[in-house]
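Supplementary Note 3. Input sequence used for the single-chain structure prediction.
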Amino acid sequence: MREITLGTLQNGIVTDLFDEELRKVMDNIADENTVPDATRKIKIVLAIKPDKTRSIATTKVTVTSELPAVRPMDGMCFLAHGEGGRLTACEDDYRQKELEDGEGNTIYQLPRAKEN
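The predicted structure, written as discrete structure tokens, is reproduced below.
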């Protein structure tokens, strides 16, 4: 029998799980939709539960990461009363040149894109 170390615990599972979480951290850092300088964390928890005789113990390893969420994105939508007077929302579409009310009057016009 050999004494347990972090590298040998459960046949090296801690190292494997750490590598997986580190990959998630690196992918999150590379994601331009996240805050670049936010702190990322990897947490390793080892739970050891001995039996009543104190001669046997079970071990449970958990490796998790705390990653910043994707940054919130700003947008705009238009609110209008649709069928039956029910309020509806329409997504802003940069290709849409203008919006008209039910009578054909222009109520909003987006600037025209410059031609290349």
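The mean pLDDT is 86. The first helix runs from residue 13 to 30.
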